[in-house]
Fold these 4 entries.
Entry 1:
Amino acid sequence: MKEFLPRDLYFVKLCKKRFYLYAFITMKIGIIGLPNVGKSTLFKALTKKEILIANYPFATINPNVGVVALPDERVQKLSAMSKSKKTIPAIVEFYDIAGLVKGASEGQGLGNQFLAHIRETAAIVHVVRCFNASDILHVEESVNPLRDIDIINTELILKDFETMQKRMEKLAGEAKRGQKDSQKTLETLKKLEQAFNENALALTLREEFLLQEIVKELCLLTAKPQIYLFNGKESDVSNELKQKVRGDYVVANLGAGESVGVLIEKCYEILGLISFFTTGEDETRAWTIKKGIKAPHAAAVIHTDFEKKFIKAEVINWQKLLEVGSWQVARQRGWMRIEGKEYVVQDGDVIEFKV
């Protein structure tokens, strides 16, 4: 069930003398950047956890981990409609990873250890300091967001280059011994090598290229979706800086305690995830799946047996269900759709699976 990755939180429940395995999809998001740019401040704002925030590099050694509920009014409204005993939103796991410095790919500042932490995440929030504050040290002794972005991305590229070259050396040996598949794979990696030599992140390459098995196996740091969080006021962020990143970014004045709920939604978006819902008196729950998943695969997220035993699904959009106020009235009005195995689940669907 590879399409459900990243999945890492499993619970086993004993019910009616049988064990049921429930698999919940969670998003692991790594928070990275230079030291003293606001990573730990962001983590605290997201998770409301008390952590060490210090005015010196490497205050964080092991990643702080926090679980954050995805802001989603749909879950709350459906729960209120059903008078549910429990309300369970989708969640995001944030990892506050220690600051990287120039030379991290060669071990500077415990860089190898910190880069390994990034490898375990599904996406990256790259915090960039844009604010000026003389009382907060900057590891490069000046505030220059464009330079800082280049430092971090260069270290990620250098680490990926090292990972790729080790594999290329092995493939070159196999190719000399006449293994045709190894030669073909080696040619693929040479294209990646060219991109790295041009200081390009892997994620800038075509999606078809990134989906090749060898590229996925390498688990490249620069292939991970990346959001830039510009820490400062809107006036601190130049147009040149916005154009430089060519991707998703958020401006947040973390020092003023600004809400960063939009960042959580962005993380959900860049990973290509959507939510469908189940609701009733016992509980209302948001379930996370990849966009484009068909109904039987979505059912397996609730219960592994549901995919094999899938018969059909009763589906209604969350707004339509709220409009009539109950499943019963929705059925009476003929608003419930009966969908089969080929149905592609849509964001905001409320579903009852029949197995």
Entry 2:
Amino acid sequence: MMKDIPAVRMHRISKRFPGVIANDGINFEARRGELHALLGENGAGKTTLMNILSGLYRPDSGEIYIYGKKVHLRTPRDAIRHEIGMVHQQFMLVSSHTVTENIMLGNPGGFFLPFSQVETKIRDLSEKYRLKIDPEARIWQLSVGEQQRVEIVKLLYRGADILILDEPTSVLTPQETEELFRTLRTMTAEGHCVIFISHKLEEVMAISDRITVLRGGKVVATVLTGETNPRALSEMMVGREVLSRVDKKTLSPGEVILLVENISALNDRGLPALKKVSFSLRERQILGIAGVAGNGQRELAEVIVRLRPVTSGKIFIRGKEITRASPREIIDLGVSYIPEDRLGTGLVARLRIIENTILKIYRNSQFTRGPFLNYKAIQQHARNLINQFAVATPGLDTPVKFLSGGNLQKVLLAREISSQPALMIALYPTRGLDVSATEMVRKAILQQQENGCAVILISEDLDEILSLSDLVAVLYEGQMMGIFPVGEARLEELGLLMAGKEVKVN
């Protein structure tokens, strides 16, 4: 019977890259009417496998069947023709085009459709799924979180029958995540096949019907969700027991490191992004800032590290005003910065790993020999960081653009932490990371706190904020909705504040 035929069957799929076997004879099957979760460490091969299904890559060997029919998916257009759509972790958007233009690209009818008709549908989808985007905005003006929303709406706009979602909830509040889950449940009830890639084990347990775990490019197991648990899944993914929560010590705050007084700033479109934001942060304190992406988080980080000017207000680091200092002066004051865009702002894609690790410290005397760089010392420094942070790479000379998302984050974190900062600003440091990499990043942040560092942690993962922070704040439309000791903050109340609702936190 047709209903018994799998929506997707991938048979003995293999894919190799230079020095890496990404997929090694993988068998994968997803059924109509089910939500099938795909789990694995960063670099395990799950995104490569889905890139093959979406037509972005061609397998070196293996076969693909869609509803029982063998297909050859040579291009993304072939996948679209077979009603397969994917939201990629690395966004497939044209930065100079508007949201509407990006969503229209590749669709039947293309630009012959009236813009007003397309914009109306985009607004309807945005409202229905609570994915706030401006159809007239250009992609380069949007935060990473807003760009991910565009990708989700683009998939919904195309009406894909087989939906592949790679970390789709990383920019949503708990309430919005539940709204999306209800939508996905409706879709599967109607017969859609949904393949869901996520590093959040509790999320996978809540939404999926079956789970396939990859490790080292191979399938470890496919299990029914009701017959497993997060601990068993994490052990299958990593090959060892992984801590779901890291131990946080109670530390006494020291002197004030950062003082922000009534700062306001504009976004890339010239509109208000920050509105009279004030707070202070001391040594050995972690301030967790929650909020849906696009509410001023990126702009706040950028004004502190002097990548964006303020329109009013003042900023002090260790009592020294730095409101109009240069980025170089900020670095010299011991400020490290982990931006949300790993390849756009954090790392230089075409440069090698060894070059990216010294971008901020190549002037230091230990890495110079007269007017020249001391390559031997730089090489040893980079090798130590790669080993310390367990970066999976063929070698130091590998351009970082060839690394997986988790390994990109490890290289970025290694560079910023190695400078022994007095103040660290981290935007979404575990976004898209597997449980093992997430554990490593969180431990690294807490170690910096123990070393005396003041930390600003910006995240949409409220569990992460509550487990790591000493103080919790919420940004909504550029305004600070309040700052609370972590012991007084509750998940549901913070979620409401993230949605702009006035609540009393106690």
Entry 3:
Amino acid sequence: MNGEKLKLSKSKDAFEVAKKYIPDGVNSSYRSAVVWKPYPIFINHSVGSRIYDVDGNEYIDYFMGYGALILGHSHPAIINSLTEQIKKGYFFGLPHELSAEVAKKIVEGVPCADMVRFGTTGSECVQAAIRLARAYTGKNKIVKFEGHYHGWHDYIAVSIHPPIKCAGLESSPTPVPASPGIPRNLLENIIVLPWNNIEVLEKCLERHSHEIAAVIAEPLMCNSGCIPPITGYLETLRKLTREHDVLLIFDEVITGFRLAFGGAQEYFNVTPDLAVFGKALGGGLPVAAFAGKKEVMQLLEDAKVIHSGTYNANPLSMAAANAALTLYQSEGGEIYKRLFKIGEKLIEGLRNAIEDTKVNAIVQGMGPVFQIFFTKRGVITNYREACAANQDQYELFHKELLKHGILIHPSMFERIAPSAVHTDEEADRTIQCFYEALRYVRAQQ
């Protein structure tokens, strides 16, 4: 593909068939035609840094399974680990030694992790972490930040991407359910704050700490584009929560094992009380975990606090996680050096392309995860500033990149997530395509 019209007729046909049996033709709202306009791309196979759709189109993939695939698609070590485990058994429903082996790796590498429990999805592990925080503190309210995403379950699916007209004041956001079907009485236990506003955070904890069990946050905001914490914000967040006897939960479903083996808490040197992991943990297999201080996690012993799941620590997911974590740690963390190097090269190339084409846009983030916003602002620090960026121009950019064989997510509220297997040659080609796509966006202004 060199910018010609993209042929997706087989994806369209597959989508029409799927809609006969599956609501909206997809199994996640974020894969729907509302997001992937006019219909989602259906994938046939993938390997390394490349993904291939049912129409035979080949893409250099920077979507990477929402960031799960640090090692790229179909990594041989993960395939081998899965193959060996299948021979032993692919489901037990009972404890097995491999889960402790994987947990040990996490405990040894993640700053907050004295103990670990496994689940299947990030959503359910966030729910477990919130339950633990409430049980440990004896308090009910949870503070979350506007624009942060912590899963789709009722207890925290609030003010994810709320319409601004419904969201109240920026300094005191109104909790907005993310979906019909979420009981409004649940909002009584959610306090929504603006991200990166220390003054509002401090006042909230001073007034309400007696009823707040925990503050939950993406330490690097990755679900409204890529919005880093301002200097000192995470340190202040940690200090204030500790002073007010409020637990701090980091949602590291995206940043865990991507920014560093120890996640964002290692990268930013700020240690929470609890943390949730997913995506990169399994190298592409469905697995999640929550980890934290021993005195909090021990509430799970003797079923004092209930956490269960038929497929928790499934042998195949554990085999994949074990292989992935082993590779992340190999050769002194060489994978992270590669991941940052290739990502920073793409960021620099994209920034140069923005400057040269004179398009109003900025790039935010760091090598392993970043995003482009079409805006005249010099920096975006919270959800409302991100909302003001031009989504239409971002969609044009996305579609033009697709025509050139480059795959990123079609929403500016997602992120670009390179892998450690992307090559310098692929980065060079991608940067050339950035130029072409930005010229196209400029021409449509």
Entry 4:
Amino acid sequence: MKAMILEGPAPIEARPLHLVDTDVPRPGRGEVVIKVGACGVCRSNLHMIEGDWARNGVPAKLPIIPGHEIVGRVSALGEGVQGTSLGDRVGIQPLWSTCEKCEYCLTGREELCPYKGVTGETVDGGYAEYVLAKERHIYPVPESISDAEAAPLFCPGITAFSAVAKARLAPGRTLAVFGYGGVGHMVQQIAQLAGAEVTVVARSASHLALAMKLGAARTIDVSTTAADEVLRKGGGVDAAILFAPSSALLKQAIRGTKAGGVIVVGAFAEVGELPFVEEKTVVGSLLGSREQMRELLHLAGAGKIRAVVESFPLDQAGDALQRLKREEFEARAVVVP
């Protein structure tokens, strides 16, 4: 098969990804092989490829095939596979495997499993024509969604779904989304489904335009305006969700949230001084559970959520990552083998 291999971390401009011929993986017990239809291009891929997370042991092996939001069809079954058939259309998210025995797995918080495997970071991912998966960590994908539109549901989609759940939204509540793009445009749609009024805080003209197109109540151009000042003039929002790795924006999100509100953080940033007398809650958010993944796919299959995507052939994955680094995408990029 063809695959984009990372042999060693380097700046994406140095083109560290190489298209190679390699063996199609063989499924072990409880595993399946998936012929990849599309794989999303995530900023996490960029961080790993450029070596930003090497000090944390990511990637766990080299060479490695990146890519962790994948949709395709089952092409081979391993021993013991019982609920999956050849040709089934399925998806894989970053949570490639879990122990299914620890306190987190047993309480529906599998993303916190200390023994988890991560697609494209500890095992080979989806920048390839075929990928290996655990049967217990694949999900049926509705036929009503194209491969390219379905793939982002498996990272920005589930990440957004979990973050919105933590924000405790309801009809009539208000939310500010800090940091827009692949995850942010999914947060907006899911929050609006919950009945919330959404303000999008971003600096890119294309992001601000997309937010309005998707139904935002208003937008704030943070390159020219202090978002917290605008939000506080309106009494503050009930919740804020941040996916921009910016301590300055996180502080604006905290100041712009009303007393008793919730700030959900999905990127590395420093909280700074927290006004405890206002009883605000700051909570981190990472991916989501398998049950949440199924709920999200149901919503997408019903046409209630859609991913805005731009597609690239497999051998142009590096070009897509360079454009991602330059923040040139309206929302999400995918590679299509």
